[in-house]
Amino acid sequence: MAFRTWTGKDGRTHYAIRCVARSRSDRSLRVRKQATGSLDETDPEAIRKRLGRIEVNLATDARRELADLEGAGVTWGDLVSKWEIALNEELKDPDRIRLKKPVKTTTARGYIQAVTDFTGHWFKRPATEITPADVEDVFNRMAALGYSNCRMYNAKVAISRCFRWGIVRRLVPKMTTPPTEGFGISRKDSKRPEILNVFQVTFLIEEAYRNNHPWRHVWKAAYHSGGRSGELYQLKRKHIDLTERMLHFEEKWNFGSKRVEGLKDGEWRHVPINDDLFELFLELGVQKMQPDGHVFPRINAWKNGEGAEILRTYCEKIGVPSICLHTLRACWATQLLKNGVDQATVMSMGGWADPDSMHRYIRLAGIDVRGGTDSLSKKKERPARVFKLVRAQAAPEEAMESVRPLPGPAPRQKDEVDELRRKLEAREALLEKLLSSDPKVAELAAQEWAEGKQKQL
């Protein structure tokens, strides 16, 4: 406390008193009180007694307000700021935190972004005054704006983690559980995730090559290796063994922090190189690269994290369902499961340590329910595949001519048989496109079919 006095022109004694009360538990928490006025007294002793009583009243009011603030704890904005500082300290020195696994940079950034975007109107309120009703209002507002269940779930996790951090450090007194408790928001959406079948992916890659798209090599590698975007961006020549035909993923590029990091699960993994991937690496000339040379071109848009938007735009252009770059990894895993590759092998090649994550791809592949309704059908011979019927109806003469033996006693040569087999496989692939649920794909296939018939005429 401090005060000063002076004699004014009116002959009265003027004074100014200032009082500050600071919290012992949180030095940043303080209450300031100030009083000014004038007295008729001229006797110094009388003035001192009057000002002493005023000081005592100011100090009492300041301590009372400070006690109320300490009971309410810090504001939500201050709590978020302190939490952000703690997260950054953990990221700078992860070995200092030995009792728990520190969050990753992208996760920490997502937490702070979520609480800033959706709870900014709480920042000036004491954290202890935030109730489940306030949290419910946030979720209702997010739902009205069209945010997905996954985004709402992530916001709930961020708010809950911030409250729990403050409760443990006694920054939010009189609170033992976060106000987010009791909200059973699921991160799963009822709609089926985006996915492409094998014919749609093939069509996408073929069109990218036909149009000489700069991302064609990246998309083909993502589908045939199951690599994540950051893993492919950081892939180097030393990670490819053309002799053993094995691809090793050991590090990735973090597009957020702009630096090289370990893989998501913290473990390296390897993926066999199939024929298409082997041809791609030869096309890129990896056999002539230096060990530390990057395999794929350094595309600026890729480094800036624009890969998903570019792929979506191209899919819409050619009439394929819109997907992001990471979806090609899902297509890779789903198709492997459909082809009969066991779950453990796919998990090992894809780097999934959690069986629950793999179950999502099992559901997409449909292998968990395949044949589940066969027992309801009558015992009868199953009809032939639909595309064979369409082939027979669309061009019966052409279909029969392709398999009719040539006249003459001489048998077919092996090269001729292989050529016929390739033609049949190409025709069946084209007919699969004709039956695609996507009208654009079916339309392009119909045009290709018509052009083929015109050439034969």
How large a portion of the residues is in β-strands, by DSSP E? 5-15%
Q: At the fourth CATH level, what is the homologous superfamily of the largest domain?
A: Intergrase catalytic core
Low-confidence stretches: 380-410
Helicity, in percent?
40-55%
Q: Main beta sheet, described?
A: 3 strands, antiparallel
* Tally of discrete structural domains: 4
- By helix and strand content, what is the structural category? mainly alpha
The shape, in one word, is: elongated
Per DSSP, the total helix count is 18
CATH architecture group name of the largest domain? Orthogonal Bundle
What is the radius of gyration? 35 Å
Give me the count of strands: 8
Overall pLDDT level: 80
What fold name stands as the CATH topology of the largest domain?
Answer: hpI Integrase, Chain A
**How would you spell out the order of helices and strands?**
EEEHHHHHHHHEEEEEHHHHHHHHHH
Could you characterize the architecture of this molecule?
This protein is mainly alpha-helical and 457 residues long. It has 4 domains: 2-72; 76-168, DNA polymerase, domain 1, CATH 1.10.150; 198-365, hpI Integrase, Chain A (Orthogonal Bundle), CATH 1.10.443; 416-457, no CATH class. 51% of the residues lie in helices and 9% in strands. The chain contains 18 helices and 8 strands. It has helices spanning 44-72, 76-92, 105-118, 132-144, 149-168, 198-210, 216-225, 229-233, 275-284, 300-303, 307-318, 327-338, 343-350, 355-365, 386-394, 396-403, 414-434, 439-456, and strands at residues 2-7, 13-22, 30-39, 240-241, 246-249, 252-254, 259-261, 269-272. The strands form 3 sheets. It has a 3-stranded antiparallel sheet with strand order 1-2-3. The protein has a 3-stranded antiparallel sheet with strand order 4-5-8. A hairpin with a 7-residue loop joins strand 2 and strand 3. The chain is elongated and about 125 Å long. Mean pLDDT is 80; it is low at 380-410.
